[in-house]
Amino acid sequence: MKKVLALVLAVMMMATVAFADPVIGDPAVDGDVTTNGVNPGGKITIKASAFLNGSTNLKDALDRNGDFSSENFSVTTKRFDKGSSLVKSVEFDDDDNVVVIKMNDNFDLRRKDTINLAIKELKISAKKKLNDDITKGSKWVYNTDVLDTDFRVGYVQVELNIEDDMTVYVDSGEGVTAEGGVSARAANADGTGKLVKFVKDEVAYGTATIDFGGVASATGRVYDKDVVFLDYNEDVNVDVVKKYPDADLTFVNFKGAPTFNSNFELEIYADEDTYIYELKDSKIAPCNLKWDDDAYAFTGKVRTLGAYVISDTKLSVDATAADGNPDTGANDVVGIATALAAVALVSAAAVSLKK
């Protein structure tokens, strides 16, 4: 019932609009220069039309013969005036026939008005002759005279007014809304709000219930100026699935491992006869969440939200990840009872020996 109610309420809330990361080429070659925002973990997509060899546009040359792909070209030079540490890679995406500048994940990076990534030079080289314009070894340079070179990398920070009791809704990949909508200070944000700052309104602290799409919820106290990254997904960890081929596994991943300034009561909804574990560096580890009949969920107090895996069968815990009781699950009471009985027998034997 709680899951259904949360979903119904979430649908009623104002939706946060997601803005795509920038795509450069085609329309922009006409001279439409803008400053773009890029999400950490996102990418800047660059089409063939963004590259020149003298006055020849690569898109026009490829229209005569050839594909814009890693089979025909390689990225030979990538230099940045600012922000090279923000960049994960520069490579071809052969599915879409584009070059992509991929950003590193940085879950506490706030987007500011100042430029923190600037392209100095981006050059590609032809691996073979495709036509009279595209010869083997010919160099094609990103058109920095006309196209965007400056970017603001970071998440749009959404400010939420604190109430005594408030509800925050997190839509996987799509950002955050609050009961009654986001604060007016975030109404004109030019992107997806995932980095959330709680700010004083009439009160300086309050109790927040954060609903993660009906998959999980966390309830605890938030304070003025608390900043947390709020997003989740249910992406499958293929390495774990391969290791436990006979188990039916589901995953709940809280991105960025958000940490709060108070204990939060975490609830992860699952079936009663399942087992829950933490996931640490793709290794199964014990979990301190316990089954709660009233909540119909695994519950427990946490300050940091991590990654969790739910299994229909008990799993062996990785020795390198184990740091507690590995027998965590809905039916652990049986194991605990057995252990207590063994302790009682040992104690009785000790008393008997003393006599």
Give the SSE map:
Elements: H1 2-12, E1 23-24, E2 36-38, E3 43-46, E4 51-53, E5 56-57, H2 58-64, E6 73-82, E7 87-93, E8 98-103, E9 117-126, E10 139-142, E11 150-153, E12 156-161, E13 165-171, E14 175-178, E15 193-199, E16 205-212, E17 216-223, E18 227-229, E19 232-233, H3 238-243, E20 249-254, E21 259-269, E22 275-280, E23 283-285, E24 290-292, E25 297-304, E26 307-311, H4 332-354
Parallel strand pairs: 1-3, 2-11, 12-15, 13-16
Antiparallel strand pairs: 3-8, 4-5, 4-10, 6-9, 7-8, 9-10, 9-11, 13-14, 15-18, 16-17, 17-21, 19-20, 20-26, 21-25, 22-23, 22-26, 24-25
Describe the structure.
The protein has 355 residues and is mainly beta. It has helices at residues 2-12, 58-64, 238-243, 332-354; strands at 23-24, 36-38, 43-46, 51-53, 56-57, 73-82, 87-93, 98-103, 117-126, 139-142, 150-153, 156-161, 165-171, 175-178, 193-199, 205-212, 216-223, 227-229, 232-233, 249-254, 259-269, 275-280, 283-285, 290-292, 297-304, 307-311. Strands 2, 4, 5, 6, 9, 10 and 11 form a seven-stranded mixed sheet that branches. It has a seven-stranded mixed sheet with strand order 14-13-16-17-21-25-24. Strands 19-20-26-22-23 form a five-stranded antiparallel sheet, with no helix packed on it. β24 (290-292) and β25 (297-304) form a beta hairpin. The radius of gyration is 26 Å and the shape is globular.
Q: What's the alpha carbon Rg, rounded to whole Å?
A: 26 Å
Structure annotation, total helices? 4
The biggest beta sheet is recorded as: 7 strands, mixed
Query: What is the overall shape?
Result: globular
**Mean of the pLDDT scores?**
84
Order of helices and strands: HEEEEEHEEEEEEEEEEEEEEHEEEEEEEH
N-to-C span = 58 Å
Report the strand count: 26
Structural class of the helix and strand makeup?
A: mainly beta
DSSP strand (E) fraction? 35-45%
